[in-house]
Amino acid sequence: MSAEIGRSDFDRVMVPNYAPVNMVPVRGAGSRLWDQQGREYVDLAGGIAVNALGHAHPALIEALTEQAGRLWHVSNIMTNEPALVLADKLVKATFADKVFFANSGAEANEAAFKLARRWAHNLHGAQKHQIIACSNSFHGRSLFTVSVGGQPKYSEGFGPAVGGISHVPYQDIAALEAVMSEHTCAVVLEPVQGEGGVIPASDDYLRQVRALCDKHNALLVFDEVQSGMGRTGKLFAYMHSGVQPDILTSAKSLGGGFPVSAMLTTAAVAEHLAVGTHGSTYGGNPLACAVAGRVLDIVNTPEVLDGVVQRNALLVNELEAMASEFGVFSSIRGRGLLLGAVMAEQWRGKAKDIQVLAQEEGLLVLQAGPDVMRLAPSLIIDEADIAEGMLRLRNALQRLVG
């Protein structure tokens, strides 16, 4: 790529809906990145929980290049082997009987919400259409998904919003019960609320939500776009609680960096997306499914899942030590390798400052709102990279506190 292209060209040629950092990465290996100037970074952001196996994993390169030499695209007027293989693996590994493939988390959620309403319409009539979601949730950027997501900053100015959607506080079972009725077709939630602050739901709360859905004959939809594919130490976060959803969505880590998403559901619910009711031109693309199939083979093993738990302990211990030393963080929360360091009261609103200082120290981290620093590294990040990343974070915090 031409060295004449740089970060300033973003402002010249790209729609200004993003504000990318002031460097351009050009190469990655494992949990390290290098920019145009050759500077190296430890990556604890993981492409926002996408790069499950780090950068340029040889098994994913092999899967992609092998498939690239065979078949790239056929559309949904026919099926293909990688899609069938991946769907079979997902069905065997989860509660699901059926799979629908798309390209992004938003598209998987769009399919889930449409399916929930179609199911309710077919079985109970048009009046059973209410979708209940949680405040501060995030389910994507399409008009339907930002309407379901409980963050006005993502939906304001795009009205009128999709109707028939209610919001209740996360983990408030009384509030949920108060708005559920015979008109409710689905309850949608993240088992670990990601963009809303990296907040895990309690097992008891999930069990109570499941019971309310059963009582009101409504579907339970788990958005596991961020929490799924091994990120919490199990293949999907719902497996910690044993609470089984009716629909589950997956993306991000599913493709290990290649765009792909999936909606998983039961046979009884799936039959309501009959021929012609929904689709995706690129959904089930052979390249994407070949890569995702290889990701699933690697992630869904005791070695990787147990390793997530072990790496969690290393990171949490380091973060808690820094919280005690610097007083910047009030608590560390999350599950597995989806972690949030909550800013202490006097440091509220400073998560962005940490992100900037960390980058200057050669470390990539994330925010989950202005008050939470978020980490979502590779599930197989080397312990040496964790140690180096924590050293660079310590340097950034020392600069922050002065």
UniProtKB/TrEMBL annotation:
Names of the cofactor(s): pyridoxal 5'-phosphate
Q: Does the keyword Amino-acid biosynthesis apply?
A: yes
Pfam families per the record? Aminotran_3
- For binding N(2)-acetyl-L-ornithine, which residues are annotated in this chain's numbering? R141, S280
From what superkingdom does this record's organism come?
Answer: Bacteria
Is Transferase one of the keywords UniProt gives this record? yes
Locate the N6-(pyridoxal phosphate)lysine modifications and list their residues: K252
Instruction: Summarize where pyridoxal 5'-phosphate binds, as residue positions.
Output: G105, A106, F138, D223, E224, V225, Q226, T281
Alphabetically list the UniProt keywords. Answer: Amino-acid biosynthesis, Aminotransferase, Arginine biosynthesis, Cytoplasm, Pyridoxal phosphate, Transferase
Query: What are this entry's molecular-function GO terms?
Result: transaminase activity
Other comments? May also have succinyldiaminopimelate aminotransferase activity, thus carrying out the corresponding step in lysine biosynthesis.
Q: How does it assemble?
A: Homodimer.
**Assigned protein family:** Belongs to the class-III pyridoxal-phosphate-dependent aminotransferase family. ArgD subfamily.
Under which name does UniProt file this protein? Acetylornithine aminotransferase
Which organism's genome codes for this protein? Answer: Halopseudomonas sabulinigri
